[in-house]
Amino acid sequence: MKRFSTLYLVSSLLTLSLSHAAVPFQLTDSSPGSAEFRERFLGNYGMLSELEPSVSVQDKPLFVRVEPFLRNNPQQAIQVLESALNNESSPAFRFLLGSLYYQTSRYGQAEQNLRMAVKAFPDFRRAYRTLGLIYVQNNRYPEAITAWLKVISLGGGDAQSYGLLGYAYLTEGKYQSALSAYQMARMFKPDSVDFRRGEAQSLLETGQYRQAAALFEELIAEQPTVPDSWLLQANTFLQLERYDEAIANLEVVHSMGAGSRDSRFLLGNLYLRAENYRPALQAYQAGLAQPGELNVTSALKPLDYLIGRGLIAESRVYLQDLQQRLPATLTPEQQDQLALAEAQIERRSDDSAAAMAVLKPLVERNPLQGEALLLIAELELEAEHYEEAVFYLQRAQSLPEHKVDALVALGRLEVARDDFAAALKHLRAAQEIEARTGVARYIRSIEQAL
């Protein structure tokens, strides 16, 4: 079981761990299906753009036939076009057919026709725009980025194109590009909730924490019942080391019945850092009680922190709660971690026999469990069973990741036996592998004593 310093506790889990979906947030006022953009799309069926393919005199009767059905009977419009189009038809009609398929949510056929349109007319801006909508709605964000960049390069830079480009960049983890796109989108539509949310998340991801916190503050003031804004602002507060404010935000989220197991564990860590031990334990227990499958590795970390702080009564309570919620099958590593935690609790409760009763079967099951070997050796040393302690330390010394700790423990053991020369030999060997300030001081104190 690791010994956790205060510094380790502060740095280890003070970042907000949210359950990320396939997208950073659900689009609202910039969604392709929003009322504003839907009305714009339905007004997209005209054929008058001088930047796009024209309709010949021979083709105009087809447009006259299909035009009455475009808004209110798209299925009839599709049937008219499908019966009339061929490989020689104007790409404007392929765009029209693709748009109708998009309107009826038949995205595969929409994409097929739109691709035919841009192949015949490579600068067909509206066709690229509808392709961009298809890709966003189907979570195909690399393709969406390409489509929206093409729209913008063809002069179609507006709120929708920059906003959905920013969303695609944000989803792909390209945060600086997302920030630039969202800032452009807000020039067209500065009050958009989606654009401000996207910009705030991009600021957070690019390390501009004060600006992100301020923008989340705007969103919270306007929509105080949206948990995600409180959660993400809590993350900015953590980065700014404003821990009390982070606690307050997380408490608000949990009072709404929102949050996650990870956010409750984080709240426990923050309370533990502030030495508010009772609310820390309560937050950890609330995390365990959250519905859903338990991530055992994550659930073990609060136990480490409680033991590291010497909160043995709290550790025992948390361990009992955890054991009631464990899945039927654990990995060997998880079994070892639980056994080590239980042994640490028993040892710090001054029950060495109970600790040994847990540790001995553990090293029989896993002879390479170095932490258990070191802890058994420590218990044997405390009982002045020196030969038994040496036996376990030599086993631990054979494990590269535990060799230094074993050598330091052997040095302490030889000091206990008044063999200072042997102690210095072990301690100097440990220092050659990994220099440690505490061990250096120990060596100096022995040399001075000699």
Automatic annotation (TrEMBL):
InterPro entries, per the entry: TPR-like_helical_dom_sf, TPR_rpt, Ycf3/AcsC/BcsC/TPR_MFPF
SMART domains: TPR
Cleavable signal peptide: 1-21
Placement of TPR repeats on the sequence: 91-124, 125-158, 159-192
Pfam families per the UniProt record, alphabetical: TPR_16 (PF13432), TPR_8 (PF13181)
SUPFAM superfamilies: TPR-like
Record key words, sorted: Repeat, Signal, TPR repeat
Protein name as annotated: Tetratricopeptide repeat protein
Source organism (scientific name): Thalassobacterium sedimentorum
Lineage of the organism: Bacteria, Pseudomonadati, Verrucomicrobiota, Opitutia, Puniceicoccales
